[in-house]
Design goal:
The chain is an alpha/beta fold. The chain has two domains: about 30 residues, no CATH class; about 160 residues, Rossmann fold (3-Layer(aba) Sandwich), CATH 3.40.50. The protein contains six helices and seven strands, in the order αβαββαβαβαββα. The longest helix has 16 residues. The two termini are about 30 Å apart.
Length: about 230
């Protein structure tokens, strides 16, 4: 949407104007590189969609995924979606240090998607230093995880100074975002109020996870899914 300036055309439509903005630079998705911070069920579906649009995918996980077995994800996903066998990414990165994160962000990413859990390690995983790294490619940033992953003042500065070419956020910090907050008026930003999870099928899917895990606890021989690691906090 941002690459093809759909918001500009939507504004023209509201004013009942027909205007081809031939002066605007359009970027097509084939050949773009998307980095996904957090390659769980959500990140894997993002990767699958992006691959279908011709993008190259780089995946980042906290722990190393060096073998085909380690790249398999048995968490819940809607049948036919995602990348359960971890076949989509061209490259995998891992680690928990700031240096590891910065190395990943320096991979000439056209788009960066945050889809990782919020822990003390991942709080403000994007700050002034990281936006400076992303400025080399003016990486577009999309956060569909949690607002505190991003230092919001640093994000506003990165948008105002053109370090990144835009951002799409379904989450903010604080949340709800107060009326009149400076983030609303930052250039090239699209904000939704934490609604990307909404679906008429959401509770049916939650129920499916509960039913499977109850069957596992009852001894049907299957392994429980989506089990929380209390030491990691997710």
């Amino acid at each position: 949407m941002m690459s093809h300036h759909f918001l500009t055309y939507a504004a023209d439509q509201r004013e009942a104007k027909y205007h081809r903005h031939l002066d605007l630079h359009v970027q097509d998705t084939p050949g773009m590189r998307m980095g996904i911070l957090g390659y769980g069920a959500i990140g894997r579906q993002v990767a699958k969609v992006a691959q279908a649009m011709g993008m190259e995918i780089y995946a980042y996980t906290r722990s190393e995924k060096s073998t085909p077995e380690s790249r398999y994800d048995d968490s819940y996903c809607v049948p036919g979606t995602g990348d359960p066998h971890g076949l989509v990414p061209t490259k995998w990165f891992h680690g928990g240090s700031k240096g590891d994160i910065n190395s990943f962000l320096a991979q000439d990413l056209d788009i960066l998607v945050l889809s990782l859990p919020l822990t003390e390690e991942t709080r403000h995983i994007l700050g002034p230093e990281q936006f400076e790294i992303l400025s080399k490619k003016k990486t577009f940033v999309s956060n569909i995880a949690r607002g505190p992953h991003i230092d919001q003042d640093a994000l506003i500065d990165a948008l105002k100074t053109g370090k990144i070419r835009g951002a799409a956020l379904d989450v903010t910090d604080p949340e709800p975002l107060p009326d009149g907050h400076p983030l609303y008026s930052a250039p090239n930003i699209f904000i939704t109020p934490h609604v990307s999870w909404q679906s008429p099928h959401y509770f049916t899917r939650v129920q499916a996870i509960i039913e499977r895990n109850l069957a596992s606890l009852a001894g049907d021989g299957t392994k429980m899914i989506n089990v929380m690691d209390k030491s990691r906090g997710y």
